[in-house]
Amino acid sequence: MITLNLNGQDKELDIAPDMPLLWALRDVAEMTGTKYGCGMALCGACTVHVDGQPTRACITPVSMLVGKKVTTIEAVGEGEVGKAVQEAWRKLDVVQCGYCQSGQIMAATALLAGNRKPSDADIDAAMSGNICRCATYVRIRAAIHEAAGQLA
Q: Which helix or strand (DSSP H or E) is residue 81 part of?
């Protein structure tokens, strides 16, 4: 048994210590908002926050997370920044297919938590590891600026 703090609650999971967090979330904890994309930390679809930092769940073993706080897309909107990001995403109709968007929102929230007035270059750098097959990058950038404005 491994105890993980998921979205503010300690959960005991009967899993192997080397299981990637993505599969612990999806298959054991039944939290399916975090998506599988590439399995190699290249696309960003599986992005979650570990102690506030964007982290790729597909390559992070659960043993590294004991004693840390994991936040997923299911709870990111409970915070001021995450709520602003989600509202901006809806307002600007960012989503097309939607598959990558939980990872995009998690990365954008981490960016705005540390930088409330990001430039386009800041946004591009923070979001560069998150791939959108529908190419909604212009709307993603606009939504991050919109959320920053809401937070100002």
A: helix 80-91
Select from 32, 55, 71 the last residue of a domain. 71
Collapsing DSSP states into helix, strand and coil, what is residue 49? strand
Q: Tell me the pLDDT tens digit for each residue of 32-57.
A: 999 999 999 999 999 999 999 999 99
Burial of 89 (0-12, 13-18, 19+ CB in 10 A): buried
* Structure-token pair, residue 27: 């298959």
* Same-domain status, 12 and 62: yes
Where among 55, 71, 87 does a domain terminate?
Answer: 71
Global pTM reads 0.96
**Same domain flag for 115 and 55:** no
Strands (DSSP E) contained in 43-112 are: 47-50, 53-56, 69-71
Q: How many CB atoms lie within 10 A of CB 47?
A: 29
Domain assignment of residue 116, given as a range:
76-151
